[in-house]
Amino acid sequence: MTVANMIIHGGVGEVVWHDSLWPDSWYGGWKVNEYLNKPLGPAFGIPHVRTIEKEQSYIWRSWEARRIQIAEEKEKQAQPAPKLEPEPKVVTLADDSVIVVGQSSGIRAKRKQSKKKDNSPKNGQLSLFD
Q1: β-bridge partners, 92
Q2: Nearest alpha-carbon partner for 23 in 58, 64, 70, 69
Q3: Which of 30, 44, 111, 129 is buried deepest, with most CB atoms within 10 A?
Q4: Looking at residue 41, what is its pLDDT?
């Protein structure tokens, strides 16, 4: 049907018959109006069709090149990356405890010596920022 439509309407291109869910399949292919608009071509101005093999098909060759490229990318991704030890993180909790996470020795906790703040008013005034 596609070939007939391209002949009737003067379409120039390639038609591939295959299973779209399995693009590696190939049932047939046609070049339609290949020389329709080429003045020095053998069929200038005359609608025409010729059958092609999958090796002659631009669509099939493009699909093969893309499939090979994806396979190479997957192969590169399959190689394991070297393991790097994460840098230790220091986490300070609300009660001034310090936890060091990510060292090979595990998790260690220390208690910081905190300075007691004197929240008594200075000069008889209260401040929100002390």
Answers
A1: 98
A2: 64
A3: 30
A4: 84
Q: 90 pairs with which residues across the strands?
A: 100
> What burial letters (b/e) apply to 104-117, b meaning 16+ CB within 10 Å?
eeeeeeeeeeeeee
Backbone angles phi, psi at 64, to 5 degrees: -65, -45
Tell which residue, 29, 25, 30, has the closest CA to residue 64: 25
Residue 29 and residue 16 in contact, taking contact as beta carbons nearer than 8 Å: yes
Structure confidence by residue, pLDDT tens digits, 104-113? 555 555 555 5
Amino acid identity for residue 102 in this structure = G
Q: Please say whether the beta carbons of 55 and 29 come within 8 A.
A: no
pLDDT of residue 101: 63
pLDDT tens-digit map of 47-76 = 999 999 999 999 999 999 999 999 999 988
Token pair of 105, please?
A: 């020795």
Which pTM does this prediction carry?
0.52
Identify whether the C-beta of residue 33 lies closer than 8 Å to the C-beta of residue 47: yes
Q: Where are the beta strands (DSSP E) in the chain?
A: 13-17, 28-32, 49-52, 89-92, 97-103, 106-111
